[in-house]
Amino acid sequence: MGASRMGSFGFCIMLILGLILNESLLCNGGVTSSFVRKVEKTMDMPLDSDVFRVPPGYNAPQQVHITQGDHVGKAVIVSWVTVDEPGSSTVLYWSEKSKQKNKANGKVTTYKYYNYTSGYIHHCTIKHLKFDTKYYYKIGIGHVARTFWFVTPPEVGPDVPYTFGLIGDLGQSFDSNKTLTHYELNPIKGQAVLFVGDLSYADNYPNHDNVRWDTWGRFVERSTAYQPWIWTAGNHEIDFAPEIGETKPFKPYTHRYHVPYRASNSTAPLWYSIKRASAYIIVLSSYSAYGKYTPQFKWLEEELPKVNRTETPWLIVLVHSPWYNSYNYHYMEGETMRVMYEPWFVKYKVDMVFAGHVHAYERTERISNVAYNVVNGECTPIRDQSAPIYITIGDGGNLEGLATNMTEPQPAYSAFREASFGHATLAIKNRTHAYYSWHRNQDGYAVEADKIWVNNRFWHPVDESTTAKSR
Ligand SMILES: [Fe+2]
């Protein structure tokens, strides 16, 4: 082999190496956090834990939780359980500014699941509330009555600041308790929680032991009784178990957790929308039919054009199974729903999509993958200024443990990922800007492990080049 041939051969090798290196630079994504959480077993808290304590007294109300009760935030659904007898489904409520006490009457329901019979589950909708007002409410009878309070949101409007907490896949482990505590003590005070599905994980117990639905209700009461949690159904809400004769999906969840789905013309409690302050929140169900012609598809098709960004600039979607996920868990489980709905999300400029399911944290760039039509080969997600930011926040801390195994190299669409438990907050400042931050449980309350200023897609549709900062 002559020297010149060696030279050209060497050049070719260099060129190929250069191309590979260049390709890896192009293909590699954002930051995989250097923080590595110690791998330890995630365990549920035992039944006699203090967080599961039954309130004292005969038939005392327990598992108290509230959620938004209409489309605009002037109503609240109050839910609780009594175990000894039905008791009263009435809520007594009064505003901080008024001594006049009002009454609202609710309804009571029960259900059976295999060999379990539920307590008396009460749901009562309080209507015609004033915006931006603190209300006290009292449930139960006599000396076991309990009083709580909540603050209604400001009237819907484009520049109304409002702060949401984001929690997913919470469960009832020792780590779940840490996540909830960190959320409660976060100096960025969340005013309502957007919960992205998988509540109690009762279905991990033999015969889906529904006692663990009750313990979960008591565990989270310290937050859910005082601020609305906006519910999304996850796979652990399905409770479909034909082997023990339980063939009605979502039975425990839909009996226990009511949502205002009729207010947004939905025909099922698994997909619906609300307006809250300056946000329009759409909740979808990964585990209900979403193909063309299905009720969920038709509802969403009619729903998206109704969103008036002049009134509610922030368009947020909650769904359990993520569409973009670079962990080796539940990989591509969200793909078929993405194929169905992603073109709409780009067309209607959804700001952010929050999902759970994967027990870790990840934030994407603004990307879309709508060009692919099977034959054209355009199957790589691309940067798209009209596309949402996708956040996976399934890191509440349930007993199934962390998702630690990531696809390598980090794909270009992934901006930041870390296998830790935690929660996030989204602080909407005005129609153009919101401050988003994620907080891992290992740190002190003031530490934000990932943070980003989010520009609104409708009012501020182009990002500055370096708004995303992570560490
Ligand atoms: Fe899940």
From TrEMBL:
Domain Calcineurin-like phosphoesterase intervals: 163-361
Catalytic activity: a phosphate monoester + H2O = an alcohol + phosphate
Cofactor: Fe cation; Zn(2+)
GO molecular function: aminopeptidase activity
InterPro entries named among the record's database cross-references: Calcineurin-like_PHP, Metallo-depent_PP-like, MPP_PAP, PAPs-like, PAPs_C, PAPs_N, Purple_acid_Pase-like_N
Signal peptide interval: 1-22
Presence of the UniProt keyword Electron transport in the record: no
Keywords noted in UniProt: Aminopeptidase, Glycoprotein, Hydrolase, Protease, Signal, Zinc
Domain of life: Eukaryota
Domain Purple acid phosphatase C-terminal as annotated: residue spans: 387-444
E.C. designation(s): 3.1.3.2
Domain Purple acid phosphatase N-terminal: 61-152
Enzyme kind, highest EC tier: hydrolase
Stated name of the protein: Purple acid phosphatase
Organism this protein belongs to: Datura stramonium (Jimsonweed)
Lineage: Eukaryota, Viridiplantae, Streptophyta, Embryophyta, Tracheophyta
